[in-house]
Amino acid sequence: MATSTKEIVINTEPFVVNIGPAHPSTHGVFRMRTTLDGEVIVDMEPVFGYLHRGLEKLAEERTYTQVIPLTDRLDYLASMSNNLAYCLAVEKLAGIAVPERAEYIRVIMAELQRVASHLIAVGAFLNDCGAFMTPILYMLRERERILDLFDMVCGQRLTYNYMRVGGVSQDVPDEFIPALKKFLKEMPGWIDEYERLLKENEILLARSKGVGILSRGLAINIGASGPVLRASGVPWDIRRADPYSVYDRFEFDIPVGLAGDCYDRYRVRVEEMRQSLRILRQAIKGLPRGQVRSEVPHLIRPPIGEAYGHLEGPRGELGFYLVSDGSIAPYRFHVRAPTFINLTALADMMRGWKIADAILIFGSIDICMGEVDR
Amino acid sequence: MAMQMLPPDWPGNFWAHWAIFAVAILVFVLLMVMVFIWFERRALAVMQARLGPNRAGPFGLFQSAADALKLLIKEDIVPAKGDKLVHWLAPVVAFVPVVLIFAVVPFWGGAILADLNIGILYIVAISSVTAVGIFMAGWSSNNKYSTLGAMRQVASVVSYEIPVVLSVVGVVLLAGSLSMQQIVAAQDIPFILLQPLGFLLFFCGALAEINRAPFDLTEADSEIVAGFFTEYSGMKFGLLFLAEYGEALAISAIVTTLFLGGWRGPLLPPFLWFLLKVGLVFFVIVWIRATVPRLRIDQLMALAWKFLFPLALLNLLITAAEILFWPAVSLWVFVPINFAVMIILVLLWSKFFKLGWGKVEV
Questions:
Q1: Over pLDDT 70: what percentage of chain A?
Q2: Degrees, nearest 5: CA angle B15-B20-B25
Q3: For B223, which residue in chain A has the nearest alpha carbon?
Q4: Whether B222 and A201 lie within 8 Å, measured CB to CB
Q5: Does the interface ipTM go beyond 0.85?
Q6: Chain-chain contact of A127 with B222 (C-beta, under 8 angstroms)
Q7: A24, B222: Cβ pair inside 8 Å?
Q8: How large is the average pLDDT for residues A62-68?
Q9: Domains and CATH numbers, chain A
């Protein structure tokens, strides 16, 4: 190198961008403190706690029944599942039996809730992709019909407070089953419509295939669950692995992804919606007559001990851990929030991808901040 | 640049012609932008199973006026550490070129401010200036999202100018002139039939240049909040917004002029034809926005350089060969040939080249 040309050195340094807590795509008040090199993400540090309400402590000040409305406020897109998971835990703790009809109604509600939640998840994911509002508005249209069904049974559209320890608060009205049947008849067509819209779209494939891969090993190691885990190729579903309620009576498949990328997570959710419809059809067929609530005292005093009730929520394994000291309120109340644990892998999935991918990866995990920050 | 003028036979003497057209163009642009904003919101609403603006006036027609009024009386905020002068200047730099484009757009035969003999070249030159305004906006805001948006804008404009210009050359070859007036006059067959591939390339490139979906990375709302105008408020934001829709209007007008035969058409008066075609092109832009997701920045670049650029070169080669070797043949013969060529080339290219799943090597 004998030439005298001066070597040109361009100094570039990574810079920090805060994505969130108030950002259109963080689905709540999540903050990603990203370090960028140009557009590429060098590092990402999740910051949360903006929505902390001290829910677990609040629950310890309330009677077992009074806690149910609190669980509504956890994952507000899947309140029915939250209700159910908590009731399962209390029933386990206190040894309370649930009437047959109530079990079926619970399954119907939980599966409807799964469809509603996945509609939001898929719609928001496609919105993050940049498909300007169209998919999510289509999906909100159908979610609205599920909310109407919920409205019919409990008069609420977001925080249902429908499940009770030992059953459900009231029987479904007469018009509910025909309305549900109508919904079940039309919903597969709607799902097909979403699929026609974007499933094979070249841009969507280019954006999400192979992006944000969560390897099978890492998914298991971090304790991921729900569609995030299944998209990585692990057929783990609590409904199958540890059947609660009456899930052992229904036939359904567990959709599993291969690559563990964003596209698989999207596909798994869409397929799960179809499977939920399948369960719903069987549940309507088998719905028995009878009581919807067993005789439970107003103030439940479970024996001293502990119990862990869990179920397959729309976002993963939702668990409630309760410790009883024999009084009317739980001594310790802990929530295993699926999205909080799924988020653990976020930084690993994001590193090396571009900022646009980061949004997509984040969207594909499908979090609900009410649950991440309790 | 020597301004060569048509004899000012309409509507009067030289200065009256200029004055009237300058006002007419301003009114046209502002009015059409307002109508287009309303139109886009209504059309999107229909496609997305919702209502859209429907309160202000019949069918919400005055929504844009209400919005503009609101923007006018809003507080104008400049970021504390922003560059005040550049921040102030950016919307102007972005908006003025958009209006300037219309100087050479023929609304109907003879109704044109200046029939430059280099009309289309002038448009290509002027329309890139908007990108400078957008970069100024992003840079002066002292906001990281804005900076990212501005960088993306520059990158996409630099890449997409090339296929756009190359596909324009095909049209120029056919018309034998750079003057917009002459190009329309040459379109006994609309050039979209003779230059289907050129039209496709031009349309893609133009969408990228004006930041419309699926190339709207500059203001990707789900990624970088609002891109370069994150820090803008009040009428400065309004002006940037106006520039954006003005660009869409300009592109619709240019596509109409270059490919759809401009004002020409049977029965209806020429200006109505012009408006109809512009509206149609804009509708397609809106339609695309409602349908497809957004590309990533590296895929955007890949699309320009690996897909549009080679195809534009091939298109140019084929067009030139047709004109050179078969000058006497009726142009209608080339319509099916060129359509076949387009289909074959696009299919072949998409076999060779996928947008690339996952990471793309640069």
A1: 98
A2: 125
A3: A356
A4: no
A5: no
A6: yes
A7: yes
A8: 88
A9: 51-213+237-253+270-338+355-372 (1.10.645.10)
